Amino acid sequence: MSVRVRFAPSPTGPLHIGGLRTALYNYILAKKYKGTFILRIEDTDKKREVKNSENYILNALSWIGITPDEGPFSGGSYGPYRQSERNDIYIKYANKLIKSNSAYYAFDTESDLKKEREKLKKRGEAFKYSSSNRLLFKNSLTLKKENVLKIKERVIRLMVPEREKIQVNDEIRGKISVSSEELEDKVLIKADGSPTYHFANVIDDYLMNITHVIRGEEWLPSLPIHKLLYDSFGWDVPKFLHLPLILNKAGQGKLSKRDGEKEGFPIFPLRWGNSLGYKETGFLPDGLVNYLVLLGWSPGSDKEILKIKETIDIFNEDKIHKGGARFDFEKAVWLNQKHIQNTEPKELLNEFPEFFKNIASDEKLKVPIISLIKERASLLTDFEKESVFLKSEPKSYDLNSVSKLNKKNAFIVLKHLHDSLTGKNFTLRSWKSEMIDWGKEERISTKEILQAIRIALVGSLNGPDLVSVSLLIGEVSFLKRLKSFMEFLK
Fold first, then answer.
1. Full DSSP string of 287-344
2. How far, in Å, CA of 318 to CA of 405, rounded?
3. Does the annotation mark 138 as catalytic?
4. Are 157 and 185 part of one and the same domain?
5. Closest to 320 in 3D by CA, of 311, 308, 329
6. What integer pLDDT is reported at residue 1 of this predicted model?
7. Which of 94, 100, 331, 475 is the one with CA 20 to 30 A from 407?
8. First vs last C-alpha separation in the chain
């Protein structure tokens, strides 16, 4: 059977970076086996739905290079792909469970259940609607049939069997065994007629021929309930893979928006309200994908710089980790830097033009400027910051850098270079080698020479190749910067 996977987010807000990783693992597995990646929108909880969330999810997937093979926007033979449009299907299958005595109607009000919870809480016990107490409540197991038909407000609950071992396999964690006595009779259909996550999830996965369910570890406690549902219908279960949690940097809990705000890094792939995403922060899609893939999976080698196609070729689901993966923003930035360095300047300009709008007014200069800066850029936003000095002379000088100079020698160096360029003894292409030869005669080290000139041109001891800088800014600006720094040294 062909591999069919699904990514099934709820449109209750922006897609978290953890959700993006789940989508990525599903996509990689599908493409590894030449299968199908399905986008399904689980929008049954209308109270929590947030406007524009669905479009945000699609745009985030598109940005990192994921195009669903089937889904609400691309169509397919197994739709509808929004759960809110599948309600009749869920009712039909819930009624099948009622008829086979695998589910029952329950008529308890919220007030009834609240009283029971509070009573047990006083005794230090937790409330659970299950085989141990279901006959104490108002449901179709305890009321006469004629009374059942009169009550309109009702839910449908799964009837968990008594004293059974529920066994199910997870491809990452192995065999999981749970006693049915520990499970609750979960609500399958709510009082408003809509399905719960547990029920709709299983029905849809079966009807859409899903072969692998890849989702976050937080859904692991639900696995025995889902197995019971499959068993109740007599269906084969798909392969389950529960991904490890993404932890905060300290490894003390799941990564949250608050962690991002505290540490100053994005938690969403794209901008959401006032929160910048990885795209706006200056990440290449390849850079972020590379980091997320390694966040809980190992390629089985020391190689860390991976493109998505290469990842698909070498991906092995057996190498997904069990333990939580600590999120390290610095590592993500480092990987992004490597992807910038491995991308041709022209390709960077063509793919991400919005980051290079202000680096030069002359379009012809943009590729040379990108070439000059890209070895030092960790993020796409660095290009504008690092190119500021090319447009105008430094407004100030880094005093820590200046303190490292021999001021007398620095002045002599700058004056000789200024006079030699003015007198046409040097050119912008030849000045570096000429100055180094001159320094040997004057007993001024190459280091002293280049430090003085670098501070004059860019304002500090950090910066790209000086000859390239001089060619980009031109002779007039070059001479002006030498003269300004000489005045400063005076």
1. HHHHHHHHSSB--SSS-----HHHHHHH--GGGB-SS-EE--HHHHHHHHHHHHHTS-
2. 57
3. no
4. yes
5. 311
6. 67
7. 475
8. 80
Phi, psi of 212 (to 5 degrees): -135, 125
Element (H, E) at 122: helix 110-122
Confidence band of 350 (pLDDT split at 50, 70, 90): very high
Phi, psi of 187 (to 5 degrees): -70, 130
| Residue 39: inside a domain | no
pLDDT tens for 48-105 read 899 999 999 999 999 999 999 999 999 999 999 999 999 999 999 999 999 999 999 9
Q: Where is average pLDDT lowest: 35-44, 61-70, 100-109, 247-256? A: 247-256
| Residues 452, 405: Cα–Cα separation, whole Å | 7
Here the tokens at position 183 are: 């499970």
In a domain, 387, yes or no: no
Q: Does a structural domain hold residue 134?
A: yes
Q: Mean per-residue pLDDT for 466-471?
A: 93
Q: Write phi, then psi, for 145 (nearest 5 degrees).
A: -55, -40
Residue of 257, 331, 338, 480 marked catalytic: 257
